[in-house]
Amino acid sequence: MSNQEVQYSTSRLHGLWALTNRELKKWYQQPFVLAMGILQPILWLALLGKAMNISNIVTGIPGVDPRLVMMHTFGTPDYFSFMSMSMVAFTVVFTTAFVGMSVVWDKRLGFMNKVLSTPVSRSAIILSKVFAASVRALFQAVIVMVVAFALGITTGSNFTVWSLFGVFVIVFLISVGLSSFFTALTLRATRMEMP
Fold it and tell me: What residues have CB less than 8 Å from 98, skipping those under 6 apart?
């Protein structure tokens, strides 16, 4: 029987990548959860965004233009455009909120204790959850934006590709911040009802 040397990676990023990959696999290997994460914002945009477009309502009141009311209230003449950006924020908040549930499940099922006994740093354990939630939120935000453009979102005259890139940078930063916040809240939680 020959002695085999066990190879360990000394890179701190190796553990972060392995745990982030685990979190993402839990997400994309569940087709129902993945499909619902994609379909829910699409249905809300298509049904509520287009059906409740206030700017298409004829008020019958002389001198009241619904488009002007929308412009002064929401900053856009089209309610669908306002709701599209709201759906991006909505998906970010709810996607990152569920990272707390993952922490509680890992603690209850014993996975957290196993990971804590490995040479992976504690910060990599937390950052893996934060990055996985941020990638999920960014993916869903891209889906919402594609559907919004397909359904006819109204953009300003100074909107460019760089503006779209800025939207995704802001989505990523907000999702990192929110997922960090929700992870911090649930680190000491022992029950599912607490987060």
Answer: 133
Q: Which long-range contacts (CB under 8 A, 24 or more apart) does 8-15 make?
A: 8/119, 12/121, 12/124, 15/118, 15/119, 15/120, 15/121, 15/124
- At residue 34's C-alpha, the angle toward residues 32 and 36, to 5°, is 65
For the stretch 48-105, pLDDT in tens is 776 666 555 555 666 667 677 767 776 777 777 778 888 888 888 888 888 878 888 8
Closest CA to 41 of 100, 97, 94: 94
Q: Which tokens belong to 101?
A: 């549930």
Measuring CA to CA, which residue among 13, 22, 18, 24 is closest to residue 135? 24
* pTM greater than the 0.85 cutoff: no
Quote the CA–CA distance of 195 and 190 in Å, as a whole number.
Answer: 9
In order of 27, 41, 62, 126, 182, the CA distances from 65 in angstroms are 46, 29, 8, 51, 43
